[in-house]
Design goal:
The protein is an alpha/beta fold. Helices cover 36% and strands 18% of the residues. The chain has a 6-stranded mixed beta sheet, sandwiched between helices. Residues 1-20 form the signal peptide.
Length: 426
Amino acid sequence: MRVSAIGCTAMTATLLVALAACGGREGNEAGSTAAASGACQGQQTTGITDKSIKLGGIYPLSGPASAYGAIPKGIKAYFDFVNAEQNGIGGRKVEFVVRDDGYQPPKAVEEARRLVEQEQVFALFQTLGTPSTTATWDYTNQRKVPQVFVATGASKWGTDTNHPWTIGWQPNYVSEARVYAQYLKKERPDAKVAVLYQNDDFGKDLFGGFKRAIDGSGIKVVAEQSYEVSDPSVEPQMRNLAGSKADVLLNVTTPKFGSQALAADAKNASWNPLHIINNVSASITVIKPVGFKNVQGIVSATYYKDPIDPTWKSDTEMMRYYATMKKYAPDADPAIPYHAFGWAVATAFHKAMDAAKCPTREGLRDAMRSLNSVPVEMLLPGVTMTTGPDDGFPIESMQLMRFKGERWELFGDVIDTRKEFGPLTG
C-alpha cells in the first residue's frame, strides 16, 4: 500500500539558519540539493530534496497482528493535514510508503530491502513488532538508514550501543513491567501471579522485567504459559493458568491473543483474578468484542490520550485530531486508539525532523538522540520525549488505568520510570 502525505510545522529562526548553512548539492538517484556545505557536507541525502521527503513504514496489515494496521491511517491523516494546511515539514512534502510484512520477520527483511534499495526512502519511520524490527536493524544500521521510532517497546532499542540508527518511541516493556510491579506491591503485596506471554523477544522482555521488578517482594509468579504467534488460540494456556488459582493474571500478548485471553478469563466463572493487560493490547478494539461487562476492572497503563476519554473532549489537540481524521481519513474511526497512536508518533517524527541541524540521514539520526523534554500534544500531560548519548528511550513515563463502564479511566499519577526506578542499561 502506498500513501502520499505531507508534514510540517513552523520552524524556528535558529533552525532555518542551521538548515540554510547546510547549502545544496546533488545527492544520489533519490538525493537532495540540500546539505552541500559546512557541517552537512558529504552527509546522506537519499530520499530527501528541498521539496520532498520519502519515508517507509512496515506494518502487519495482514496476519495475527493485523489490528496494528490502523496505525498508518493515523499517520497518514496527520501528514495529510500538515501537507494541506502547514506547507510540509520544513517545506518538504512527505511521501509515506507502507509495506505489509504479515508480522513475519523474513518478510520484514524483504520489505526493508525493497524500501531502502528500490524505493530509496530517506528513513524507515516505524517498523512494527519486536521480531520484525530485530530482523531488520542489522541491515538498516549497516546501510546507515535511520530506523526512527520503531513501534515496539523492546528495551534493547535503548540499551544497545551497536545500532545508533535505530531508536524506539513508546515506553519500553521493562519499564512498563516495573509500573505493574509497583502497583501490585502497593495494592496486593502478597499476590500470586499467573503469566501468559508471547514466546518471542517481546513477551520475554516484559515478563523478564516483571520478574526482576518483584524480586525480593512478597509477590510470586506461580504459573506461566507461553504461546506462539502461529497458534490458533490461547485457550489451552488459559485453562492451565486457571488451575494455578493465582489471584493476578499478567497478560503479555498482542491484540488477537489479548482478546482471546480476556474472553477465556470471562468464561471461567471459577477463576476471577485481577487481570492486567499490557498496553499494546489495551485498545478498545481488543476489548469490545469480549463484551464490556466481561472486562470490568481490568488494569493497564498508558502514555497517550485516549480519544474516547471525555477528559480530553475540549483538549485542543484532541479536537484537532478529530477534525483532521474526519476530513482526511473519513473511513477511519477516530475513536480507535491505534489511530491516535499513529497521529502522536507522526507528530513526534515531525518534531525530530524540525530539530535536525542538517536535512540528512545523519542529521535525523543525531536529532532523534538529542531530544530535550520535547512535548507531543497527544501524549498525556507531563509526558515528553527525552533522549541523550546514554539514553535511547524517548518516552519513559506512564499512568495506570482501569476499565470501567465502556472506557478506560486513568488513576494515580504519571510515573516517570527514570526517576522511580533509575535508567535501564545494556
